[in-house]
Amino acid sequence: MTGPAHLSAQPGEIRTTCAYCGVGCGVLAKPDGQGGLTVRGDPDHPANRGRLCSKGTALGETVGHEDRLLYPVIDGARADWDTALDQVADRFRETIAEHGPDSVAFYVSGQMTTEDYYVANKLMKGFFGSANIDTNSRLCMASTVAGHKRAFGTDTVPGTYEDLELADLVVLTGSNLAWCHPVLYQRIVAAKAARPEMRVVVIDPRRTATCDIADLHLAIAPGADVALFNALLSQIDRRGARDPRFARHLDGMEEALAAAHAEDVSRTGLSPAQIAAFCDMWIGTEKVVTVFSQGVNQSTSGTDKVNAILNCHLATGRIGRPGMGPFSVTGQPNAMGGREVGGLANTLACHLDIENAAHRDAVQTFWAAPAMPERPGLKAVDMFRAVEEGRIKALWIICTNPAVSMPEADRVRDAIAGCDFVVVSDITDRTDTARLAHMLLPAAGWGERDGSVTNSDRTISRQRAVLPPPGDARPDWAILAEVGRRMGWAKAFDWPDAAAVFREHAALSGVAGRFGGDFDISDHAALDAQGYAALAPFRWPTAGTRQGGRFFGDGRFFTPSGRGRMIPVSARALATETCEARPFRLNTGRIRDQWHTMTRTGRAARLNRHMGEPFVEIHPNDAARLGLAPAGLAELRGATGCAVLRVLVTDRVREGEVFAPIHWSGDTAPTGRVDALVAARTDPFSGQPESKAAAVSVAPYAAGWFGFAVSASRPELDCGYWARSRGADGWQVEMAGPDAPADWEAEARRMFDLPDAEIIRVSDPARGLERLALVEEGRLRAALFVSREPVALSRAHLAGLLGQDGAEALAGRSAAGRPDPGPVLCACLNVGVNTIRAAIADGRATSLDAIAEALGAGSNCGSCRPEIAALLATAQPVPRPEAA
Ligand SMILES: Nc1nc2c(c(=O)[nH]1)N[C@H]1C(S)=C(S)[C@@H](COP(=O)(O)OP(=O)(O)OC[C@H]3O[C@@H](n4cnc5c(=O)[nH]c(N)nc54)[C@H](O)[C@@H]3O)O[C@H]1N2
Ligand SMILES: Nc1nc2c(c(=O)[nH]1)N[C@H]1C(S)=C(S)[C@@H](COP(=O)(O)OP(=O)(O)OC[C@H]3O[C@@H](n4cnc5c(=O)[nH]c(N)nc54)[C@H](O)[C@@H]3O)O[C@H]1N2
Ligand code: SF4
Ligand SMILES: [Mo]
User: Fold this and answer.
1) pTM for this one?
2) Atom of ligand 2 lying closest to residue 406 CA
3) In this structure, are residues 665 and 401 in contact, taking their beta carbons and an 8 Å threshold?
4) Is Magnesium one of the keywords (predicted)?
5) pLDDT tens digits for 115-131?
């Protein structure tokens, strides 16, 4: 498809790509005339064919200007671009002159566009002459990058999304696909429905929503994937399932087999029968895809886990053919593009190697760069250690929030606070990292800037500007380029638009292609502005026999010998030992409706309804032993920090293991920052931290009071525990603290900033009950409910009272007398769990389709269908720490 005609599917609709996960769904977006967007799935995009998940569906509700950073800020004061950019250029120039190039660093993100990433990488590696640019992909995909390079010679994802549908067996290990890659999950669900003989295995210590479609769930011991895949490789050999024809294309088979045969399989924590069942399925099914994500990568044996998986596919020759292969599903929208531009501290550009002199020379010549680093730079954990030690004196953080997302987050926060000069580019100043910056630069966000992103199956798609950037905000690439020009490199950073950056990147990939690498899109190097505007999604490689398709089925690899490498690996213990002081294994991850630190998804009221608070999942036996009540609060302590989280008692986690999601921050729940608990232990090959296996203690949080509040404007909290979220017409807060304030009325006036409101109060001091309604002009502006136990009132009902007649709020009976829809399961159509339960209970709905028909729930994006199915199948408790 060419020409602008295809840009608009319908009048006013612009084709773009979702802001969130690595599925990379196509979106048709249209300004709604009120600052928002209407969005729908792009029926022509190969990743999603019209589908979107709950987060994609709510994109239009997250683009408003509230809380946006609108102009540059220097030391807390508004500044103009000229002053700010000159200062950035001066500080980096002076620091490099005085302390050398390795005294500065960039910490960037897989949510930047390829164009942003390209400019950042060129500026640091080619012109500052340092490789101190690393990215949050270090916390995300680094182990896969290292594992791919060891086995294939390059960081190449062999397969395509179609393989997930063509497979007869899909193994998901360390992946909660139902919540984290919902559209891919829906594609598998649809394929399984069409071909019921297709089977799914989930390998995960927790029973996740993804297990809903699993024929087999293996609740593996944390960290033990190497042992399991070694057990499989050993069986592949013993049962004669190796592919002798493909073996000609491989090195290292014997060593890898020897290591596999020697493996201690008991480390998996699985029974011999479970392992045998898994091996039977895997070995007995030629078309098998093994999908892996953070349960594999975020580990001190992450790289070995990746190679343990690749070994099995290589030994059987099940790679790069339809319906088979190992498949790393990437997290961020441009995790893959970042790898293509070489945005990691140990990569160069276009999958070239920083330590290879010929590669370095070629890139240096192409860039006409004054200096090139010969060694890798600091990887994320080491980078922030260097910041802590004062070795990094100027730091620019772009599009990521390390004060929340890095392990040992409190320590990282303090390190950033102590750095001589910190620049943060973000779309909002309400992040824990932005609070620490000397200079804030306003970035144009998703929907406001042009660029391209690469999804998990190598498909490059355009993100397009649909709305004008607010205030003075500019695209990240343009900010970086301006700094490059002001530092004296006018020609090297002189691009009129994102299209010109893309052309240069594509041309460089042609230089890289001459070295025989995998990534070469140089046929796009002559794309003009119009061609870029109209660029339709395309998958690389774009030429040759593999065009648009798969890698390695033909036995050609990118190693010096041209053969694939099997790597001998052996399971190792987790880096952080549990001990008497910290006896629980803390696993961390994501929830369905929030994206990372919630700076965008947290703005959409409907995405806050599914799970509105930081929580910890704990097994019923552990909860009983520790005296933890459901919906109470627990205090978790790790070696480097602590957290207070709502208790969710569930047998989805095993005894001795707890799980907490990563999304809360200083702005939404300051004691909910779980990375404060995680030790910064890293994989020896990839430098990726072990974010999934911390050691913690768990104890009841001694709350003297619990509170719940609704407020029309954002409340400012100051108590032991609080979690604040946006509702449809205002804000909701969960609160608790050891000692109740002496004067609740004064506290409420301060909290809600309503000094002159009329207060209607009902209190029962003997029972610790307080109800306060703050009313202005007869209308309810805020209400606060306090009790000694977790507040048991319908949140949805109370939130609905804002703006209504003030007095009604205090009548407990009105809250009790109405059906409470409960936490929202279907975010798209706003259907609560109680509503669904009622329909099941009264026999109106007996199947997923009947529920979709009767209530609409599950009929749009389908992300909630596993949870509805669970309600149908069992009387399981609701997946939310709901105090009501
Ligand atoms: N809703 C939502 N979707 C997202 C994101 C988001 O923030 N929210 N973020 C995106 C990003 S950047 C990423 S990287 C992806 C992550 O996507 P996933 O990797 O699927 O998500 P996680 O929840 O981090 O972890 C996956 C699972 O690994 C399991 N696990 C923990 N330890 C082990 C282990 O030792 N072995 C095995 N086999 N499993 C283990 C956990 O229990 C968890 O269920 O999601 C992307 N999609
Ligand atoms: N314990 C634990 N820790 C983890 C993980 C885990 O599973 N467990 N997962 C890790 C993984 S896989 C990841 S990917 C990271 C994610 O962690 P982060 O990258 O720190 O999280 P985000 O909230 O996505 O941060 C993105 C920031 O960029 C801003 N932003 C959005 N759009 C733009 C833009 O266009 N330009 C600019 N300049 N800024 C923008 C947002 O407002 C936000 O502040 O967390 C990691 N940390
Ligand atoms: S699956 Fe959801 S979050 Fe991921 S790209 Fe598609 S719509 Fe966006
Ligand atoms: Mo990620």
Assistant:
1) 0.94
2) 47
3) yes
4) no
5) 999 999 999 999 999 99
